[in-house]
Design goal:
Helix content is 31%, strand content 26%. With 117 residues, the chain is an alpha/beta fold. Keywords: Nitrogen fixation.
Length: 117
Amino acid sequence: MKVAIGTSDGIAVTEHFGYALQFQIWDFADGRFRLLETRRNLPACGAARDERTVRDPMDVSVDLVSDCRAVLVTRIGECAVNKFDALGILAFETEDAIGQALGELAESGLLTEREAA
């Protein structure tokens, strides 16, 4: 299963969900994580909107990581949390190093509980 991480440096969780320029996508399998890819994002907060904009920028950001079981960011607003809840995606706030954050998530058992559900 996949986990999205808002990071600007690839070392620590550094991004607020609404302002994230990119998400690293990590795969969790057999008790281990491996980096799959980095996805570029147009930040939802402060995004330019005009009459040609059909979709809410927050929906675009949520859709970008909607194939993940969890999202790790430094901050996330209620709007995004509600959208993730509706999709069954866990959202966590942390400022830890990526390895530490992923380790704590794995140890929590939440990823395996979600997989079994």
